[in-house]
Design brief:
This protein has 85 residues and is an all-alpha fold. The chain is built from three helices and no strands. The termini are far apart.
Length: 85
């Protein structure tokens, strides 16, 4: 039996998205920031102009230490002379 849809449902338009009521506020001018505000509001992110980023240690030439293969460690089989001792 074919599916039947209610004709009223097909005649309705989808609801439009709700627009923003207020626009995003503009960032404050540097002069508008009160003197007791924390540092992130006073200084922009990143290095200040004319200053190089801090020096970092070069990577070590040694490769990273890796774990061995997973599973039990198997001993080598003994020879006849080792068993007799």
């Amino acid at each position: 039996m074919p599916m039947t849809h209610e004709p009223v449902q097909w005649l309705q338009r989808p609801e439009p998205p709700i627009p923003d009521i207020e626009p995003d506020p503009e960032p404050p001018d540097p002069d508008d920031v009160p003197p007791d505000m924390p540092e992130p509001y006073r200084e922009p992110e990143g290095d200040p102009p004319g200053h190089a980023p801090p020096e970092r240690d070069p990577p070590s030439p040694e490769p990273p230490v890796r774990a061995g293969l997973a599973g039990p460690v198997r001993a080598r089989p003994r020879t006849k002379t080792e068993v007799l001792q």
